[in-house]
Amino acid sequence: MPDQIVYCRSFPLWIADQPIDAAWSEYDAAYGVSPWLAVIAGAGVLAFRESAKLAHVTRSVFADAMRISRNAEQLGGIHPLNARDRQFIEGWEVEAHRRSVMSQSRK
């Protein structure tokens, strides 16, 4: 989902059986950026952004994406973007500008 990519990054940090710092380092090495979301097994979701307002937006968009994913199963399943399309959205100037504007207006 494009909004999930723009506001949450493509992948959340998943923390299950390993220390948070090890999981964070692995994420950083794999994606070259710090996560904006962490899903902690059995506990919940945390958002890491420049401000509390941006963190709230990030968590809200992620929660909506999870509801959409759950409901999509009833409508024929989830059809995620391929890597090329996902990377296009991640680097698209229009989305970068939208993130920048939102970041400036939410402080």
Short description:
With about 110 residues, this protein is mainly alpha-helical.
Number of strands: 3
Can you tell me the number of structural domains?
Answer: 1
Order of helices and strands: HEHEEHHH
- What percent strand? 5-15%
Helix and strand content put the structural class at mainly alpha
Indicate the low-confidence ranges by residue numbers: none
- Tell the overall outline: globular
Mean pLDDT: 85
**Radius of gyration, whole Å:** 14 Å
Helix content: 55-70%
Q: How many H/I helices?
A: 5
Q: Can you give keywords for this protein?
A:
107 residues, mainly alpha, 3-stranded mixed β-sheet, globular
List strands and helices in order, with pairings.
Elements: H1 2-8, E1 13-15, H2 20-31, E2 37-40, E3 44-47, H3 52-72, H4 83-91, H5 93-105
Parallel strand pairs: 1-2
Antiparallel strand pairs: 2-3
Protein model, in words:
This protein is mostly helical and about 110 residues long. The chain has one domain (about 1-105). It has helices spanning about 1-10, 20-30, 50-70, 85-90, 95-105; strands spanning about 15, 35-40, 45. The protein is globular, with a radius of gyration of 14 Å.
